[in-house]
């Protein structure tokens, strides 16, 4: 019968930057830090053979997705603002075109 003893994970070989990447990506505020540390971790893991490639990839991907959502949200907010200004006659400081501030 084969030995069924489970192999334990060696946390000493885990890349610290990979953990930092995923942790900062999950905060959403640290998206840029997640991307930078993720790329650096992937390079170090390739050279040193450390574990944590999946964590580094996840942190990098989540960081890029978060920034993409920020950009899309900003564009949507700007378009909605321009639409409202055009539709309701708001010109930034008041509602002159609607006759409210004459």
In short:
The chain has three helices and no strands. The protein is mainly α and about 100 residues long. The longest helix has about 35 residues, at about 55-90.
Write up this protein.
With 102 residues, this protein is mostly helical. The chain has one domain. The chain contains three helices and no strands. It has helices at 16-26, 31-48, 53-88. It is elongated. The N and C termini lie far apart (93 Å).
Cα-based radius of gyration, to the nearest Å:
24 Å
Q: Uncertain regions: pLDDT < 50 for 5+ in a row?
A: none
What is the total domain count? 1
Estimate the helix proportion, in percent.
55-70%
How big a fraction of the residues is strand?
under 5%
Order of helices and strands: HHH
Main pleated sheet: none
Taking the alpha carbons of the first and last residues, their distance comes to 93 Å
Please describe the topology of this protein.
Elements: H1 16-26, H2 31-48, H3 53-88
Task: Record keyword descriptors for this entry.
102 residues, mainly alpha, 3 helices
């Amino acid at each position: 019968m084969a030995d069924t003893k489970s192999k334990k994970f060696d946390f000493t070989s885990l890349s610290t930057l990979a953990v930092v990447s995923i942790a900062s990506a999950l905060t959403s505020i640290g998206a840029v830090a997640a991307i930078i540390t993720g790329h650096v971790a992937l390079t170090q893991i390739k050279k040193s053979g450390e574990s944590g490639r999946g964590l580094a990839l996840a942190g990098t991907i989540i960081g890029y997705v978060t920034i993409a959502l920020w950009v899309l949200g900003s564009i949507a907010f700007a378009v909605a603002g321009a639409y409202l200004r055009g539709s309701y006659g708001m010109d930034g400081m008041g509602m002159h075109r609607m006759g409210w501030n004459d």
